[in-house]
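Final report, Chapter 2: Outcomes

The project's central promise was a pipeline that accepts a single protein chain and returns its three-dimensional structure in a standardized token representation, suitable for archiving and comparison. That pipeline is now operational. To close this chapter, we reproduce one record exactly as it appears in the project archive, with the input sequence first and the structure output second.
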Amino acid sequence: MSDVTAPHTPGRWIWFSGLIDRESPVLEGNPHLARALQRHKQEGMWLAVRARVLAMVAIAIMVMVVTPWPQAIYYLGISVLFVLIGVAQYRVGRIGTSRAELALLFCDLVLMTITVALPNPLETREIPLAFQLQFDGHKFFFILLAMATLSYSWRTIVAVGTWTTVLWILTIGVIWYLSEPDPEITATLAAMYPDADVIAALSNPTLVSYEQHVQELVAFMVCALILAVSMRRFTHLVLGQAEVERERANLARYFSPNVVDQLSHNDEPLKKVSTQDIAVMFVDIVGFTQYSAARDPREVIGTLREFHALMEAEIFRHSGTLDKYLGDGLMATFGTPVAGPDDAANALACTRAMLDAVDRWNAGRVRAGEQEIRASIGVHYGSAVLGDVGANRLEFAVLGNTVNVASRLEAMTRALGVRAIVSSALLEQVETSGEMSADLKAEGPQSVRGLDQPLEVWSLG
């Protein structure tokens, strides 16, 4: 399978199923959607292989019933070749330049043309070449056309329709050129149908009936165009669904699953600037600079990943939003992008859960002979401004003095010798929701830069 994540070049051409197509605006610079389309195409081509096998089995059974031996052996062998070509198409099929897939698609059509237009080499009876066209073998091309829809490429369907039409026109022309009408048969049929030249011509096994084959070609191309239009619309629906899934995955990196569900049904754009009361939390590792200075960088990164994973899990479990990572720390919010009555209580419960998670993690580290990690947490509740910032690359930002105060409360843990500090503003909201706070210790009024009055704070741990 090809790499579909190559850097985007403006105006570059890509190939769908080996056929040139101008790159869709939805796919530009978006490898996630390209991979989604690739996945859907591979699934469709696998279905096409299974459908092809079933179709060839059905045709093989029909051949054994209606075709005498040993002539049936020829058509059974052709059926096996069709299956092998289908398997090969599945193995090489991809989004991107695929000449092999293009060649195999053409081989399909050529093999079908040979099968239905040329006499069976095992046939012992002498049959006029023009009579081969009267077996109505053109209808078998509809099987290949139907299987082409499982490639999820409307251009593949158009190609099948176009190539089939061209091959069939050439086939009819070659058979007409090589066929020699039998004068006796022609005269006999003309005498039988003196007033019906069309019937006489259709009944003549040595003549090529153009009227009949023109109808076949027109009907086939109309079906191909209708299927191509339907498949193009279907592909756009697939791309749209992939875009939705990509956006949902991006949200899941920042918001808890329940918030993602809510946002996915919310028509209000995040970029709309708003002001609302939220809880803001800052988490940091105490003394991490000294810790990392004496250790291998890979060990440091591994420790950071474990710590962030623990904190992130608790944030999401308590309906919080991971705002950003800050080196060895992080910032989280509760009440973004949609505020609720339990935001403060969730923030306090998350603080407790984080401390418990760090304790369990440290117990494992001690057993492994590793140094304990000390985390510090600061949480505040108040008004903040929410909205997207940036020009070309947007970032959902939470701004305001509430954020600054929460950061300074986290830094205050070192001076007070505690692991977590929460503000009285947060506890006032928690108490109104009925949350117990027996494990909190009053630290008294503390001066916080940015506030005119000292702030009552409480500590945990």
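Archive annotation: The chain has 14 helices and ten strands.
This record, like all others produced under the grant, will remain available to the consortium after the project formally closes.
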